[in-house]
Amino acid sequence: MTVFRHPIIREANIRLAASLFAALTLFAAAVGRAGDAPLSLDEAVRRAMENNLTLRAGTFSPAISATDVRRARAIYNPRFTALLDHSGSDTQVFPGSSSVDRKRIFDANVSTEVLISTGATASASITNLWVKDNLGTSFSRFAQPQFSLSLSQPILQGLGREVTERGITVAQFSTESALAGWRVQALSVAGSTRDQYFAVIKSRENLQTRRASQALANEIHASNEARVRAGVLASVELLDSQLGVAQREKDLLVAEKSALDEADKLLVLLNLSPRTGLAFPGSYPEVDIDRSEDNAVRKALARRPDIQQARVNLKGYEFSARVGRNLLLPSLSLKGSAGVSGQAPDYGNAFDDMRSGNYPLWSVGIEFAYPLGNDAAEADLAKNRLLAGQSRAQIQSLEESVGLEVRQAIRNLETSEKQIAVAKRGVELADARFDSYVKRGKVGLATTKDILQVESDLTAAREALSGARSDFQVAITQFWKSTGELLERHGIRIEDREIDNIAWKGLQ
């Protein structure tokens, strides 16, 4: 910091130090409570991953897609059916006869059906039929139990595990896409948090600079008042110092508002109360950055979640197109069944007959079906083939965009780094210029207006340096986002199952 020795300023150094201390104290009260541990950058990003409401809402999409997978797997759930039926009929024994045949039938049927991964449907059933009529013969009352196993296997359309589980596979692809989409969102939130973190630091530094500028203007004005009363300074100098104080008060109000606004934005990203105190470390972190374009592009193609999402979507469309070809085939199924039955006037003997196996039942057949005009299946196939083609073009375009983003990010890094050096040089020159005007003021060659102007230039140079440092960190954010490694750079790795857990925790 420049040591002020101009007679206009006199003891400004002592009082300025006190003013700066007070300014820092007031700022700490605005953005951080006494005793608060400094919020590190890694901690800020981690809190955003845990607490950000937008990101938390995004976790529901993969969780919802996961329920679709579970629902699709329900095709393998066995189906149980039970039937109890009692029916009757009264009919003439023969036309014109007064005799009536009264028949009563009781039917109890229990069956289960299950889907096999080959596309086949297997079932087992137990039927117990009780018939009673008034014919008066030995068979007018009888029980007829029956046990049978049946199998229906498609051999064209619907054949194979891939076709059978197409609903499951499509739901899995949707879940993977939703997970990748969440990671795109997480990368964006992490980037916004990182940038906002440094926006707060920049606004704090600017506030410190503006408070120092105001303190200096107050000291100059106080000194001018004393000299005007002593008759050794023209009153116009007093007006200039008053104007300087007023201008800096206005600038300070803007800086105070900006500091509070930026802190508030960060609190929203972290989902913290507006009354939460935030303390920050006093320096920008040092980072090691590999600026090799080839390495960066290679990382981006392997890690970027938006590319991963696009590739998952392509796999889904290709799968649907492949399965869609099978659905164009005719429906041709082999059917077969085997079982045993029994029949007797009472249940006991009827079941004994069935268990003996002396009365087998069997059937073998083939079933064919084909729509006259398979427009729905043909349209679905065409749609999925078109979507796959569109997805390939989008991936190619995205990969080219990634290369461009990486190159731009590297150039931004280099430019921002150079701007820091330029800004530092600007502060040095502005500081030296201020010292020069202070020395000129000693011999009456610089007015209050001159000194305040060069001090204002020095303040602007210091703010430019703070902005350049912040811009460099923003450039780092952009670079790590372009390569997809931003979260890893902050020690964050989120497994897919954790994303699902976050969604369910939000419901508790």
State the CATH superfamily name of the largest domain: Outer membrane efflux proteins (OEP)
Fraction of helical residues? 55-70%
For the sheet with most strands, the description reads: 6 strands, antiparallel
Overall mean confidence score, pLDDT = 87
Question: How are the strands of the biggest sheet laid out side by side?
Answer: 1-2-3-4-5-6
Q: How many helices in DSSP terms?
A: 14
Give the CATH class of the largest domain.
Answer: Mainly Alpha
Label the structural class.
alpha+beta
Order of helices and strands: HHHHEEEEHHHHHEHEHHHH
Count of all domains? 2
Radius of gyration: 42 Å
Q: Can you tell me the residue ranges where pLDDT is under 50 for at least 5 consecutive residues? A: 1-35
Coarse morphology: elongated
CATH architecture of the largest domain: Up-down Bundle
Query: What share of residues are in beta strands?
Result: 15-25%
DSSP strand count: 6
Measured distance between first and last alpha carbons: 55 Å
CATH topology of the largest domain: Outer membrane efflux proteins (OEP)
What does this structure look like?
The structure is a single chain. It contains 14 helices and 6 strands. The protein is an alpha+beta fold. Strands 1-2-3-4-5-6 form a 6-stranded antiparallel β-sheet, with helices on one face. Helix 4 (60-73) crosses helix 14, helix 8 (293-303) packs across helix 11 and helix 9 packs antiparallel against helix 11. Helices cover 62% and strands 15% of the residues. It has helices at residues 12-31, 41-51, 53-58, 60-73, 161-164, 166-229, 235-270, 293-303, 305-326, 347-356, 375-442, 448-483, 486-489, 496-505, and strands at residues 79-92, 100-115, 121-132, 141-154, 331-341, 360-369. The model is unreliable at 1-35 (pLDDT under 50).
